[in-house]
């Protein structure tokens, strides 16, 4: 019997041979993280999502920075519900937040990724609702807090792409390396792409990226892709103050051009590469917990 995954792969290969773009056929899940805080993850996540939208992708952003949710502030909205409202009976479309710039987002709160308290039926309910995002969106971008928690490690491990954000400062590069080292130690690093943010010049960005790539290869045996560079640009601060993403507010700024290039690089790099998509992401994220939940429910204590 041909298993489902093999059948899907066969169909994707056939579509690719027909000239179809299969890289987003399953959707893609991208996680933004950094070692050091304040390097620009949230800002890049939101603006990169908008830039992908301009390339014809259908992005949705999930804020997984538990306790320090910034995406809503950057988008100038106050969501009335977090994803944990799903457990109170709301469906995904009632939890999803519209924004003025047309970028939908989901406030992760502690409900989606901090799942230790969920029982098996709650996990099933969460999975059923979150999976519906696939009906409307083909790219899920997840913003996280700085550093690493056990939850974030699982989220990164389940994603199609991990975007590691740093600035050119040696402290940020050292912390990015430290984060990579932790993830490698845990044994589940998805394809990793580096963005150097706040570079004074493209040369400075390239030198910083080279440094990180070299140490990752030499000491961790990990090959990183460089997605690109975003220059230091005061419009970023101005857009944060106005609570409107700079790609929308200042589409001709240097920062917006840089992010547009990142999005093009991403789409081009994804071409031909298979993704697990949202379905695969959720399966991986919940699989261990779910089997424990099933065990718990058959052996009540
Ligand atoms: N390219 C840039 N040019 C100028 N300023 C920038 C740039 N990128 C980010 N900043 C500044 O850095 C600040 C912090 O960015 P952001 O909140 O996105 O970082 P973060 O990595 O998400 O932080 P945290 O770790 O706290 O979640 C922004 O508010 C903005 O003022
Ligand atoms: Mg942030």
Description:
The protein has 301 residues and is α/β, with parallel strands linked by helices. The chain has a single domain (26-285), classed as Rossmann fold, CATH 3.40.50. It is 49% helix and 13% strand. The chain has helices spanning 4-17, 41-54, 71-75, 92-95, 120-131, 150-158, 170-186, 202-220, 234-242, 246-249, 254-270, 277-298, and strands at residues 28-33, 59-63, 105-107, 139-143, 161-166, 192-199, 225-231. Strands 3-2-4-1-5-6-7 form a 7-stranded parallel β-sheet, sandwiched between helices. Helix 8 (202-220) links the parallel strand 6 (192-199) and strand 7. The longest helix has 22 residues, at 277-298. The structure holds adenosine-5'-triphosphate and magnesium ion. Magnesium ion is lined by residues 41-42, 65, 70, 143.
The average pLDDT score comes to 87
- The CATH architecture designation is 3-Layer(aba) Sandwich
Q: How many domains is the backbone divided into?
A: 1
Strand content: 5-15%
The molecules bound to the chains, other than polymers, are: adenosine-5'-triphosphate, magnesium ion
SS field, number of helical segments: 12
* CATH topology assignment: Rossmann fold
Q: Largest sheet, if any?
A: 7 strands, parallel
CATH homologous group name: P-loop containing nucleotide triphosphate hydrolases
Strand order of the largest sheet: 3-2-4-1-5-6-7
In the CATH scheme, the class would be Alpha Beta
SSE order in H/E notation?
HEHEHHEHEHEHEHEHHHH
